[in-house]
Amino acid sequence: MDAAQTLFEQFKVRGQALVDELIDEGTQESLILDFKAARENKAPMLEDDRKTLAEAISGFANSDGGIIVWGVDCRKGPHPDDPDIAQSKKPIGNISRWLSDLNSYTPQVVSPAPIGIEHFIILEDRSQDSGYAVTYVPKSDGMPHMAIAKKKDQYCYFLRSGASFIKMEAYMVADRFGRRPSPQLNLHARVYVGMEMRSGGKHTREYKLVIGIENNGRGLAVYPSIRIQPLSPLQFWKYGIDGNGHHGLPRVKDSGSQGASQYFAGGISDVIHAGTVREITTLIYEANLLAPELISQTNLSMQYQLYCDGFAQSGVLEFCLGDVLSNGTVIAGTND
After folding, report:
1. In sequence order, what are the residues at sequence separation of 6 or more whose Cβ sits closer than 8 angstroms to the Cβ of residue 265?
2. Residue 95 in contact with residue 35, Cβ under 8 Å?
3. Contact, 194 vs 183, CB < 8 A?
4. What's the pLDDT score for residue 86?
5. Exposure of 232 by Cβ count < 10 A (0-12 exposed, 13-18 middle, 19+ buried)?
6. pLDDT at 295
7. Confidence (pTM)
8. Alpha-carbon distances of 195 from 199, 206, 208, 276, 326, rounded to whole Å
9. In order of start, what are the domains of the chain with their CATH numbers?
10. Whether the bond into 224 is cis, omega within 30 of 0
11. Using CA atoms, how far apart are residues 335 and 315, in angstroms rounded to an integer?
12. What is the pLDDT of residues 62-77, one digit of tens each?
């Protein structure tokens, strides 16, 4: 979850309390936060409001995404060098209609329309149907988005710079048209309970951790690879991903592998499509059933590095076995 989406979820949870807090603290506009007042402080949206919406959607989508809070007056302080800060509340009348207009105009004021934009309202006075609206615009990895709400004055591309939306230069637009959607790799892991064994006075059970690569981006992950270093008591299961010694990507030797780490790397045909997981290998932990009370308290961890064409990420996977077994079997790593 990116910073803008995290802030959007906070608005959903805290509502007007967060609006009040931002104003009381004189919060500055930023790369991901913009305050807007309605042209007439009420719905329906006028042409100037639609122009503002188009500019903000284009600018945030062409940058790193962001949040628009509707119904807050934002101005500079008393001195020329003061930043734009949230000054006062300007609740929007007929806020339900404003939300309807946001949903209707969003796909009309920007071309192409970005995917994943969300709006919701915060009621201040239910009887008067007045309040605030919050818009989340995710970052777009595709072609740039043009603001087209006001035919004579717009039809241009915006991006977010500091606390402002600025028009993109021609070379910026050309660069974006040549950019392909990018992949976003994350570690994917699932735990399952294996065989119970008795041998030589030992009574053990296998707990297996299947390690995979998940592509949460919108682009194709080409030449995917992963370096895995399990930390004791985790170790590689010699039978691979399928019990027959095979792995989801070829295992290769490389100079970067140290100690117990192993490196798995794919070629041009080993791609990971957007929204899919490729499972790579299996780690194993043998628990002592003669001391079952210790199993739920066992902490397991591993270090990893993920790569593909145009992407690199490292991180650590740490979890308590008891928590995973009681709450679910799918876990994710924490990227550095």
Report:
1. 223, 224, 225, 249, 250, 252, 254, 307
2. no
3. no
4. 93
5. exposed
6. 78
7. 0.62
8. 13, 6, 10, 29, 19
9. 3-177 (3.30.950), 185-335 (2.60.40.10)
10. no
11. 4
12. 999 999 999 999 988 7
